[in-house]
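TL;DR need structure tokens for one chain.
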Amino acid sequence: MEKQRPISGGYRPLSSENGGTALQRTNSICPSPDTQLLEAVLQNNVAQVYRLVRNNLDLLNHVYTPEYNKPILLIACSEENVNADTVQALVDSGANLSTTSELDQGWSALHFAAAKTDTSTLQVIIRALKHPGDINMLAKGNNALHVLIKHGDSTKNEEFKRCAQLLVEAGINVNQTDNNGFSSVLLAAKKGYRDVIEVILEKSPFQVDLDSHQLRNKKTARDLILSEKLYDGVLPGELPNNNFQTGETQVLFECIKRGLENGFINYNNGEIENVDADDTSNTLLQLCCEKGLAKATRHLLDKGADPNKVTSKNIKTPIEIAAERGYYEIFKLLCDHPKTEKPFSFLLSTFLKCYENEKFPDLIDYKQCYIYLMDHLRFNPEKIPSLINEQDDSKNSPLHYAVRYSDQERVEELLDLGASLGSKNKSGVMPVHDIEPKMLERHLDRCIEFDKSGKKYKEDFSVTFNYRTLIPPRSNKVPKVEKDLEENLNQSVVQELVAETEVIAYMSQATEFKHLLAHPVIVTFLFMKWHKIRWIFNINLAFYFAFFLSLVFYVFLSYANFRQSDKTSLELLILIISVPVLMVTFFILILRELFQMAVSPGKYFKSFENYIELVLIFITGAIIFTKTPDEHTRKPLAAISILLAAFELVLMLGQHPKFSTNVVMLRTVSYNFFKFLVWYSLLIVAFALSFYIIFSKTEVASPPEQEEEDFFTDPGKSLFKTIVMLTGEFDASNMNFHTFPFTSIVIFSLFIFMIAIILVNLLNGLAVSDTQIIKSNAELVGHIARAQHIYYVETMLLGNILPKKMLTKFENLFCCYPSKRWNLIVLKPLAEKACLFPRCNKCELTVYPNKGGEIAVSNNSCCFGYCNHIRLEKETVKEINSIVRMKREEMEDEKQECACLQKLEEVLMKISELDNKMEIIMQCLPE
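>> reply
TL;DR here they are.
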């Protein structure tokens, strides 16, 4: 076996789609060789091109993404500023002329050179072709002459004509038709290119067929040339039929292109020597699917054609082609074929995107295609969970397209089959973002399942909650080694674990969905989820409470120096214990904050609570590690630290469901209070400055025996005094109304009326209003707070502790840096404990409402023992019973409606029988 030559420049080879080798950058601190080659080509630096390619031949196959999405030769043949010498250098160096660009209709270098309309470049490519037949290379049915006529620059008159002459003299088939059945001369006549028609008729070594191919208006090339007077010479005579002179395969392809199904089926008595034949652009079956020929498709399948065969230039399978065009009959044939590989995600997404398209023409029907595919999918129920959430190249799932393009019935159908509302596309958008709230509420009602024939009053009556649509789909795929570092870093910490509360967290923030958090399905999920992670809350609270107590004891017994005398033995014992506890918990607090910053810096710095913790850390650090500061420093630091620590403790207690409503009230009222206060702060500052001007001491001051402090000696004190007066503490006896009696009394009266009475009462009323609103929705507020807290904990446990940007920079800068995934495996046990269904695909929970909301634990349950002795809250059980009762009433109504309809049908049948009897009687009566 030949030993592989090492690749320089920090690149490793990857296999490409056309069998060649692409390059992937692994590490380099210098400009990469592929970048140098691209610059050399664009600058026509021929010597540099030769040197770079000689050192690394694999550069010729490197695909430049995303700017060009093609190899260097195709770039050179398409860029206007690249000359023929540069193209010649690439060809001499071994560039592959048969390489194509799928994003550019499968064009090769020959097609790009023709479209560029540069004689020198085209001549280089034609001379480099190895076989005479290569000049007829097709790209989606187009040869180079087709491309020149369709996409060439006809304003370059001489160059345009000379390019056509080069191709014709090289032996290109001027009678070759494209996928629409148009030959080159027909296209030239349609566009009115006199020079090209002259070149084709006078320079072609083959007789030109002017009559076998027609436009949609039935005009041939001869008709157009004569009517538009596009040629002054004598036109060649009519050929018998040029389409059917080049063998069986060409005959079959021409029949398909012209839509001659009967001719295709009956040719050679229906016998086809090679049913999988292709013209390098399409197989026979692919072209039939593209043209919508159902009979021809059936004929090929009956003769044994491979329903999955593709070409290198058209990698779409026949069923994908039929699905994109909405050909229902062809799609049905391929779907029923036992060997057809069905890309369900692509098919579902395609049909849903076009679901509302009109049924035109009759053979196109996306709705019927979708319905048939779903019926086919239901025959494989074990595959539904994995197939229904498959994603396309944009990471969109079928549900993404359903909520945007189709009707409510289709959305509900996908949801009932288990389509996830939490499937994210590349833009981070989930289907829940676009779904209607009413539709989601109906779906949540359907997620409550129970035995419809069971007796509701029996003790063992059970209700099952289905959560599979609320949980994002799990990915069991492990990233390939060839994928780049950044893509690996985007993967979750543990591949099979997902943030189960992500959908509910979004609902808790969206106004239109907030009310749904009181639905029993959501409530039970959050209830069980809280019981899964409450151990984290308890540990966090215990550690922080120890930090708070040790900080308070340390401040009062040592740092603040309240007692200069000797301490009692109890105080010394408390101090001895509190110092090491404070040190340990302080460092744990630092580690906790650093961990949160590393995992999710964006979320961390959006939280006001985290800023309190950061300030508390700095102040506590100063208290612990600063050597004997003076009293003016110690006491302010001690006071601020205890205040911030108490604030943080209150906010932390608010994470518990029983206290969450109180903390939400505190936050909401404080926020709204300060928001309105800031809005009216201009008036407060104006009054403060007015008081400073009016009440500041002058030579005619108050009697000297008045020794109380004057708060109006400077604007700062005046502002502070004004803010204090907002509380009603006016202390008007100390104000000097003697200097400017009228002005001072008027301004002070305005302050009392506008600020002390109107503004303060307005703010108090606002606070009362907010409090009443929160109290009236206390249950919903608690669910919202619980959902957001649980999601934050999940994000921390499932995130990556090492920032991906930092690792990517290391990877790009240092050659010795290892290229591997840096997922934090140590968090896997914690993440599993936080997940409600870490290993179960069946995301369900069974509850016994008549046993006080007892949770059912089966042998194959994912609860791991934590569900034992857990009972739902009474309010939740009442809601469950209410929904069960409502569903039973709906069932009874449906039964009554069915019974009424049945009776009505019976009456109509009897009337019909009587009518028939009356007709018989009337016929028997004499006229």
